[in-house]
Design goal:
There is one protein chain. By secondary structure, the protein is an alpha/beta fold. It has a domain of 248 residues. Helix 2 crosses helix 3. The termini are far apart.
């Protein structure tokens, strides 16, 4: 039937079907996640939390005597700075007066040049200070740590429409990786509702991932969840750092790329334990806000282009649908991973490079948590 209730002529209907099948003309297209499954391994810090230095990356090789001269000069400068302002030095490591105090970092607007500095190995997280000893102590809380760029007209969208789409993109990240109910293991209904219902491969993935999680259909690719009978979040703050970028995608779509690291402090769900560990998840999600005149899509939803994940102390080759951090004896008894050694706080490397580094070598080892 036409818009006014009249029948569409047979020749018009046949032309529409031909165009839809061949991808020509003005027929909307069914979207597809072009790179949904990128080779990845969920990284796990398998080492116990005490001897951090045992799990640092190998030191850089140095040249001859001049290298030692530079080290000596730097040491002298460091001692002078400590003598003049010890409190300031403590703030660099988020230590403050023994805890998480320190100057908050400015928002991330571009990829950093290197990893954040390493703090004293003696600073362990506690129930009162779950980010103690971590670079995340200076990160922002929740979605405040996800930087939005300035909007501009792109593709089929005006500047105001782009601004709204960027905000909704961040809303999806909050609904999928920060929502307290989802973190407790509930189904991420709000986030799922933002996925284009006409994108069949993604809808199939989501349905299968929550019914029968597996390596290929793992809900952790998009969502952060803990099994509440085993794991409890410490406090109500998740630290984040990351940014959102955008450009014009296929068929004039607004393509939004999100690259965010989430730090979750957790403790055993069973009462009586004061042990705190951190699970660190970095996700890159690429979204396509499509032109409804060119792609089948419902208002307020987006199509997924790709999604990748890399995690520390969240389980390795344990496809239960939940992040599974190790505690106590299990953590102490875990052997070192046979994969790459990485710093989970290092955002100077792109996710593509991180995935290539991970490859299929097995479970990696993190230098810190």
């Amino acid at each position: 039937m036409g818009k006014d209730g009249e029948s569409i002529p047979d020749e018009e209907w046949e032309r529409f079907l031909r165009e839809a099948e061949t991808g020509t003309g003005s027929a909307p297209k069914e979207p597809s996640a072009r790179a949904r499954m990128v080779t990845q391994r969920l990284r796990e810090q398998t080492a116990p939390p005490a001897p951090w230095r045992s799990y640092q990356a190998p030191p850089r090789r140095r040249g001859g005597g001049r290298a030692w001269y530079v080290v000596g000069l730097l040491l002298a400068v460091a001692l002078l700075v400590v003598a003049l302002g010890p409190g300031r030095v403590a703030g660099w490591f988020g230590a403050g007066d023994g805890g998480d105090e320190g100057t908050p970092l400015a928002a991330e607007t571009q990829r950093p040049d290197g990893p954040p500095p390493t703090g004293p190995a003696s600073l362990r997280p506690t129930l009162d200070q779950p980010f103690r000893g971590s670079p995340a102590a200076r990160w922002a809380d929740g979605s405040a740590g996800i930087t939005l760029p300035e909007a501009r007209a792109t593709g089929w969208m005006s500047k105001n429409e782009v601004a709204k789409a960027l905000k909704k993109s961040r809303d999806f990240l909050a609904a999928s990786s920060l929502d307290p109910a989802v973190l407790r293991g509930e189904r991420p209904r709000e986030a799922i509702a933002m996925l284009n219902p006409h994108q069949k491969d993604v809808q199939d993935y989501v349905a299968t991932a929550f019914r029968a999680p597996s390596r290929e259909n793992d809900p952790l690719l998009l969502f952060s969840r803990f099994e509440k009978s085993k794991v409890r979040l410490v406090g109500d703050v998740v630290k984040t750092r990351g940014r959102i970028t955008f450009g014009e995608g296929e068929r004039g779509a607004l393509e939004v790329t999100t690259d965010v690291t989430y730090v979750y402090p957790v403790t055993p769900a069973a009462g009586g334990s004061d042990e705190v560990v951190r699970t660190i998840v970095r996700r890159e999600v690429v979204m396509s806000w499509d032109d409804p005149e060119k792609v089948y899509i419902d208002p307020g939803t987006f199509s997924l282009v790709s999604y990748k994940v890399d995690s520390t102390n969240g389980g390795c080759d344990t496809f239960t649908g939940y992040l599974t951090p190790a505690f106590g004896a299990e953590r102490a008894a875990s052997p070192p991973g046979d994969g790459a050694v990485v710093d989970p706080y290092d955002r100077s490397t792109s996710m593509d490079a991180r995935m290539r580094e991970a490859g299929d070598a097995g479970c990696g080892t993190a230098t810190r948590s």
